[in-house]
Amino acid sequence: MAIVNELFGSNVFSDHIMKQRLPKETYKALQKTINEGANLDISVANVVANAMKDWAIEKGATHFTHWFQPMTGITAEKHDSFITPTNDGRILMEFSGGELVRGEPDASSFPSGGIRATFEARGYTVWDPTSAAFVKSKTLYIPTAFCSYTGEALDAKTPLLRSMEAISKQAVRILRLFGNASATSVRTTVGPEQEYFLIDKAMYEQRKDLVYTGRTLFGNKPPKGQELEDQYFASIKTRVAAFMNELNEELWKLGVLAKTEHNEVAPAQHELAPIFTTTNIAVDHNHLTMELMQRIAKKYDMICLIHEKPFEGINGSGKHNNWSIATNTGSNLLDPGKTPFENAQFLLFLAAVIKAVDEYQDLLRISVATAANDHRLGANEAPPAIVSVFLGDELSAIVDALVSGSAYDAKSKTMMQIGVDVLPQFPKDTTDRNRTSPFAFTGNKFEFRMVGSSMSIAEANTVLNTAVAEILREFADTLEKASDFKTALQQLVKDTLSAHKRIIFNGNGYDDAWVAEAEKRGLLNLKTTPDALPYLLKEKNVKLFETHGVYSHTEIHSRYDISLENYCKILNIEALTMAEMAKTSILPAVASYAKELAESAYAKKAILDKADITYESDCVAKLSALTTALWKSTTALESALQKAETLGDITEKSMSYKNGVIPAMDTVRAAADALELITAKKAWPFPTYGDMLFSV
Ligand code: ADP
Ligand code: MG
């Protein structure tokens, strides 16, 4: 392996490469576009495209693709080669500025939630020059946004970029009030920690449920699970280590800052954390990370499961979204700082985040709502479906003192006067201990822990950015009018924290007592996707997105439909898979096993009059009762499914899946799982949890 610093970014058309390969004027013009969003002249685009193509060809590329993020949760690409025929029967390798800037994928089969039906059939992709192009599998990848012809966003990137602009605009207004004249923009930064499982490929292939749905629909917890906690941070097994090495190398080549890796809590579970970067780049990099994990695992005869809940009863996988705000001059606005001045600014941004999370708790919940993540949230291993903010004891004491106007330090009787007093230093490691909080302050950033492992992090960050932008807008409106900034600031922070204190919770989020307490506080507990989604259409939420130009009215409605359609489709596939596995593999396998037992009893009797056949007869009786239960519950599942599928209205349909299909699936599973426990291992038609979880 080449040394890491040579390897790093070697397949990226990075700033460094651009500086080397672009004429000075072109480079400057492009930087203006990247940093300030200035329009890019086509003549400049032509020069950039040509340099990109020459560089990509040197890296072995023959094709280019506009890489985009339709509302399927994953990325899409269509490859075109660089070849252009000449009159004399040869070819040239060409790539124009037009091709770089804009593409037209055949978009007709990507979800649009009705946008294309009412407007225009086609969509187009537009280059996102802030996320660097790269070469992968002989192809030049150009990160792009995907829109309809009338300009509606058909993807996850467009609203994210709009939300980044919104928060930048409002945060700069606040910075000006604090006398900061140098920062001209603000970007949000994200470091997503990615959890995943690795299992043996041969095992995976024998499980139709994993192949079709990404999770197991049947199976009992093995006798040994995670109770010994011997997997967490344990030394990494050889095959897994080889996989991780190759993954790191490939990620580094693509400029992804893969930093830490370790075993997670559950057997076969692992985590990869990158160093944080600008949010839209972090989103792109996280997509690359998930894709490479899945591809590279196969080379080692393993399968990487990114599903939120591959195994019932075993910890699921999430994606901790570490989020902060930084100025273009390099200061982190969620760092408390050391001077009264820095502290005052920090407290204002902190108050803004707290208020944003409280007022838009429904949107944050919605941003992580999928059929898969419903299995995880609130299952005593992941944050509950209730959104709350963890601040830690030190910061909470400050908040209490500000709200009550009393001393925050009992001993020295210090009163907190914003802009005058210095905050105590918060020891970083004490702030990160509460792993049960969905939204935790961890010293100089917030960690949003509800995001599911397989989801794009775009939506969660779009909501977060927009909600905070809105509160900053309100703050700026108030403070810009104030005659005395310091007094107004003190009052604003105090009022905001008093009004939104209910969202702060430092206790154990896995505790049932919290559910009751949260209800008393009036916090939402939106347990499932169909419970959560209707909140998206609430007037305050539509207004939020429209005010900041993040989603139009049409776009919100389309997203509502797409989310619920996706929920129903996932459950439909799961239910069909379940019925198929029950009818065509479990029931026949158990029937022949019961026959074998019965024959064994007969055979015993034949040679021994008084043979004891208690085991055989008891077992056959149980098998046959459970077989009947499985058969009947499968039939019931099929009717529940049919009933849900006949409903035309997507809201009703999703409710019918939640209230009809899911309980029917649970009944099928209960019968099948009971059968697994009394059926001979050799007769069971697919690998068990124990086989899979301890397979690599
Ligand atoms: P740990 O969670 O193990 O304590 P850290 O808190 O240092 O580790 O980092 C966890 C993740 O948070 C990493 O991906 C890291 O890059 C990211 N992170 C650190 N600082 C920031 C920041 N200012 N903005 C966004 N993410 C950050
Ligand atoms: Mg962390």
UniProtKB/TrEMBL annotation:
One of its GO terms (biological process) is glutamine biosynthetic process. One of its GO terms (molecular function) is glutamine synthetase activity. SUPFAM superfamilies: Glutamine synthetase/guanido kinase. Residues 156-586 form the GS catalytic domain. It comes from the Bacteria. InterPro entries: Gln-synt_C (IPR040577), Gln_synt_N (IPR008147), Gln_synth/guanido_kin_cat_dom (IPR014746), Gln_synth_cat_dom (IPR008146), Gln_synth_gly_rich_site (IPR027303), GS_Type-3 (IPR052725), GSIII_N (IPR022147). Residues 62-151 form the GS beta-grasp domain. Belongs to the glutamine synthetase family. This is Glutamine synthetase. It comes from Sporobacter termitidis DSM 10068.
